[in-house]
Specification:
- The protein has helices at about 20-30, 55-70, 80, 90-100; strands spanning about 1-10, 15-20, 35-45, 50-55, 100-105, 110, 115-125, 130-140.
- The protein is of the alpha+beta class.
- Strands 1-8-3-5-6 form a five-stranded antiparallel beta sheet, with helices on one face. The protein has a three-stranded antiparallel beta sheet with strand order 2-7-4, with helices on both faces.
- The model has no long low-confidence stretch (mean pLDDT about 95).
Amino acid sequence: MGVKTSDFQLKMRGDTQIENITKRVEDAVTKSGLAAGIAVVFIKHTTAAVMIIEDEPGTRADTKTIWERLIPRDPKWQHNTLNAGEDNAHSHLRGHLQGASVTVPFSNQSLLLGTWQQIVVVDFDTRPRTRELIIQMIGE
C-alpha cells in the first residue's frame, strides 16, 4: 500500500464561485503511479468547500441560491460582531456544513465517478483568495 500526495492552488473570487477540479484530480491520480485506491481531495480553508455535483449552469445557479437561502449574509452573526472588520461569518458556516474534503475511489488510474459527477471547489468568502488544495492518494 502506497501513499502519494499532490497539491495545487486556485485563485478564487469568492461569492460562492464554483471551480471544477476534476481534471486536476484525474491528472494527480495518473501521475501517482498507483493503479487502484482512494483519492482524498482536501481544501485548507474554512470559508471554502469541496463537493461533488453535476456541473452544469443550472446546478451552479441552484447551488448559489440554496446557500444564500440556508445561511444568508448577516452583519449580526457573532463572528462578524466580535471580530472587527470581519464580514464573512456566513462563509465559515457554509464551509462547516459542506465540508473540506471528498473521497473518491479510483481503479486502473481512473476516478470511479458517476456519469454526471464532477469534483468542484466552492468559495464562499467575501473577497478573492488563493486557495490551497491537497490530493492524497492511498492505494497500490
